[in-house]
Amino acid sequence: MKNKIIAGIASFTLLASTPFNVLAESPQTVIQNTQLEEKEKSLFNSEHYDFVKYSQIEGKLNALGEESNRITIEKSETKSALGQDMYVVTVSDPSAKGKFGYYKGLRKKMIQSPEKAQDFIDKHPDLKVPVMINGSIHGTEFVGTDAVLQLIERFATDNDEQTKTILEDHILIFNVTANPDGRIGATRFNGNGIDLNRDFITQSQPETEHMVDLITEWNPMVFLDLHGYVKGYGGPSKPGLIEPCTPPHNPNYEYDLYSKWAMSQAEAMEASIVGNKADYENTNTETSKVDYQNMEGTYIPQRDDSAGWDDYPPIFTPMYAMYHGAYGYTLEAPTNDWDGVQWTYDAVMGALNFASENKTEMVKDQIEVFKRGVQFDHPFHKEGHFPSAYILPNDAQDQTATQKAVAHLQDNDITVEEAKKDFTHNGVTYPKGTYIVPMDQAKAGLANTMLWDGEDITEDTPGMYDISAWNLPELWGFQAVEVTSEDQLEVKSNEVRVLDSKGEVIGAGPYAIPNTSVESVSLANQLLNNGHTLYRGSDGTLYADSSAKSELQTLVKDSAVTISTEAIPDGAKEVSAKKVTILKDGGINKAQSHSGTKLALERLGFQVVEKNPVQVAEEGVGDSDVFIYNGKSNLISYDNSTANREFGLQDAAQYEAFKANVETFIAEGGSYLAIGAGASHASIKLGLSDVEVETGGSNSNGIVQLTHGESTYTAGYNAADIGFVYQPTWYSNTDDMEVLSSYKDSEDFFMAGHWKDRGQAQGKPVMVKDGKVLFIGLEPTFRDHTDYLFRLVSNAIFAESN
After folding, report:
1. Contact 230, 141 (CB under 8 A)
2. CA–CA separation, 162 vs 754, rounded Å?
3. 3-state helix, strand, coil in the chain (%, to 5)
4. Which among 657, 587, 651 is positioned nearest to 619, based on CA atoms?
5. How many CB atoms lie within 10 A of CB 9?
6. What are the distances in angstroms from CA 63 to CA 68, 92, 163, 539, 584?
7. Are 22 and 30 in contact (CB under 8 A)?
8. Residue range 462-469: average pLDDT?
9. From CA 652, how far away is CA 647, in angstroms rounded?
10. Separation between Cα atoms, residue 416 and residue 424, nearest integer Å
11. Does residue 572 surpass a pLDDT of 80?
């Protein structure tokens, strides 16, 4: 096995200068790839090696494509956030090449007629099944893509029995580098600052959409997501990590079917790694403390631990793939070097050999997931867990959130229907055209994950690896009415084929633009940015005069927002286009904490400028109306670690300059928003307020009930409404300040998620205004996900800068 690895490395070195000929579509592609400013390393990695650069990948693939008739190379039509190409390589034996449409069709039949599909498998045990391998979704985890390239070379060119057997049984689909921007810039996140391995329910990023398209296109039997770097979880004898996970497990999985195979397949990967331990170089053992040559295994969370590495949230790539019936695994290599590449390569080979040995029964159990959905038979779930359907009513004035949800569900292989006539359920009459999600369908688990209320799992586990609640209806702003499993809708319906998203402008003006959604606020901002004068009422409605009619008619065509004629109320205040500056987090602790807010502001239609802490210290805030801090508190520190240092301030003089410039901005009438725990703490350190900041645990998060006061800051929301917290924050010493919103004063104010010792926040202020400084203890723009809460920020921008 060592010879194989070394040969792969050597050949890729030789191929580095291969011209971009097979895949190049135009000279522009060559220019793009040869002029990239590519980083050589990340300071967050403890080891460094000469990994394959993004600009070399296309040439390597081209050369293999010329050499082998087993390989199909495609550029996705979808580009990365920064416009880079994403490559999909499919490897099969030549007999299957050219029949991919046939195999994809068979995978679709598994969903449509699972019982027949199981019978087909019994009669055709030689059927090839797809396995998907995802390379380096985190850009700094370089070994994943390097292992993918070696695996592609092996399966494209080798003729040993193991290689031929695996190709007889499988079609291998490689997403070569899942995050081109991150590989180029040596960042964990993509060019928009989003961690793609947290985006699989939101699907806000093009790279995520690309991966979802691949998964729904192929419905792979096994999904392997290649990461790094985990060294110490299993102690010195068990470097690296291979899932399955610790509890809690999401209750919408058919987890018994996954568990039937997952541990055995993980141990097969482990055995493959350990079986080749003599071949590892131990290049960095002195510094990494990873002794590959003496390893006894690897850390498998479900086997080796009780909590701490869960698969509850469907935001991770393999967990998302599990809802499509895949046996999904995260593989975390121990080190950032060629030994880490070999560990990953060996793990994948172990998974593929296991899949070959157990293919027939594994794929039949995958189909069983779909059969349970179609037959509404979930034997290992609590009675009543799955409703029989969801009703998604349309808002008469603003259908954007509901239509976004319907399109999202359809993109995820979930059937949505619309009523052919009016119908009544639980005393409520719904009109013809109302959307319905029937739950007797193959991917009912994913549908329920996206539409259910969630649950409070605080008592189920000591802590969570990431978020514990993501309720799309609440956080996107549409209704999902649950039809219990005991009830059945008596209505004829058809599958939704086309979404009519055309809005309407009614009357001759003036026009009332409702404060109801991201899209409605964006419409108003587009008018403002184009020079129109608008007026804002106390309820947040924005009014335009009749001169805006033509432009509004163009804008609403794709928005599903109805704009009606309505007189401008007395007391409405004139508003102009607002300039917003946001403090940029370049990547402290490998994350860009401000990115969700930046994307939210752009979607809301604001003019947004990013300034990093050094720029604010040297230049000030500029001519902006509003300055927003939504990031870690150590953005204003000048005592950061070596890896974090470039993203914060550099010395005490810069800190004093930053502080003085922010104070000057506020004194001259600028408005300052501190969003979240880190910004709140930093703002107190800067001396901007005497409010006292209190926070929950750093991994506490979820959906909360709020009590809003009557103010323009909470316009468009109900007095009793919801919010989202991530490291929950609240405030005290607020007697001389305006409390705009509080956590509900009730023991049940926490609705879903994980938050220990939350009682201390009950009834406490969560939005407080102190002069021109506004504190928001929620995360209203979290990861570009919480659309329903974005308007808390747009309200603040318009209200603060009147």
Report:
1. no
2. 46
3. 40, 20, 40
4. 657
5. 17
6. 9, 17, 20, 62, 41
7. no
8. 94
9. 15
10. 18
11. yes
Burial zone of 94 (CB within 10 Å; 0-12 exposed, 13-18 middle, 19+ buried): exposed
pLDDT bracket for residue 12 (50, 70, 90): very low
Give which of 397, 393, 377, 386 is closest to 425, Cα–Cα.
393
Burial of residue 712 (number of CB atoms within 10 Å: 0-12, 13-18, 19+): buried
Rounded distance between C-alpha atoms, residue 83 and residue 89, angstroms = 19
The DSSP call for residue 246 is B
CA-to-CA dists, residue 607 to 140, 537, 568, 781, angstroms:
31, 22, 25, 16
Rounded distance, CA 440 to CA 387, Å?
9
- Helices (H), ranges, 222-308: 255-275, 285-288, 301-304
Give the pLDDT confidence of 145-169 residue by residue, as tens digits: 999 999 999 999 999 999 999 999 9
* Residue 229 to residues 138, 272, 638, 798, Cα–Cα distance (Å): 11, 19, 28, 44
User: Which residue, among 352, 360, 356, has the nearest Cα to 331 in the 3D structure?
Assistant: 352
713 vs 627: CA distance, rounded Å: 16
Beta carbons of 521 and 605 less than 8 angstroms apart: yes
CA distance 144 to 615: 35
Length of the chain: 802
Is 566 annotated as catalytic? Answer: no
Q: List the helix and strand counts (H, then E) for the chain.
A: 24, 32
Helix 444-451 to helix 400-411 angle, to the nearest 10 degrees? 150
Rounded to the nearest 10 degrees, the angle between the axes of helix 143-157 and helix 161-169 is 100
- Cβ–Cβ under 8 Å, residues 239 and 298: yes
State the angle between helix axes of 100-112 and 206-218 in degrees (0 to 180), rounded to the nearest 10. Answer: 80
pLDDT of 29 strictly over 80: no
DSSP string for 298-311 = -B-HHHH-SSSSB-
Of 332, 368, 482, 519, which is the active-site residue? 332
- Find all residues with CB under 8 Å of 740, minimum gap 6, and list them: 708, 709, 711, 713, 714, 767, 768, 769
Token pair, residue 122, equals: 């019994």
Long-range pairs of 64-70 with CB within 8 A, sequence gap ≥ 24: 64/152, 64/153, 64/156, 64/157, 65/22, 65/23, 66/22, 67/156, 67/157, 68/156, 68/157, 69/94, 69/97, 70/94, 70/97, 70/155, 70/156, 70/167
- Angstrom CA distances, 464 to 95, 245, 733, 783, stand at 46, 12, 31, 18
Helix axes 338-374, 100-112, angle to 10 degrees: 50
What count of other Cβ atoms lies within 10 Å of the Cβ of residue 256? 12
Contact in structure between 765 and 742 (CB atoms under 8 Å): yes
Q: Are strands 417-419 and 493-495 parallel, antiparallel or unpaired?
A: antiparallel
pLDDT at 802 over 70: no
Kind of pairing, strands 579-583 and 626-629? parallel
Helices 2-15 and 143-157: crossing angle in degrees, nearest 10, is 100
d(CA 151, CA 349): 9
- Token pair 């991770």 in the structure block, residue: 316
Instruction: Give CA–CA dist 15/8, Å, rounded.
Output: 11
Mean pLDDT of 207-222: 97
Longest Cα–Cα distance in the chain: 82
pLDDT band of 35, cuts 50, 70, 90? low
What Cα–Cα distance (Å) separates residue 331 from each residue in 44, 236, 425? 19, 18, 47
| Cβ atoms of 425 and 451 closer than 8 Å | no
Contact call for residues 533 and 576 (beta carbons, < 8 A):
yes
**Does residue 417 contact residue 438 with C-beta atoms inside 8 Å?**
yes
pTM score, whole prediction: 0.94
Contact 215, 223 (CB under 8 A): yes
In angstroms, how far is CA 280 from the centroid of its own chain?
35
CA R_g for the chain: 27
Question: Angle at CA 694, nearest 5°, toward 612 and 465?
Answer: 75
- CA angle 272–273–279, rounded 5-degree value: 110
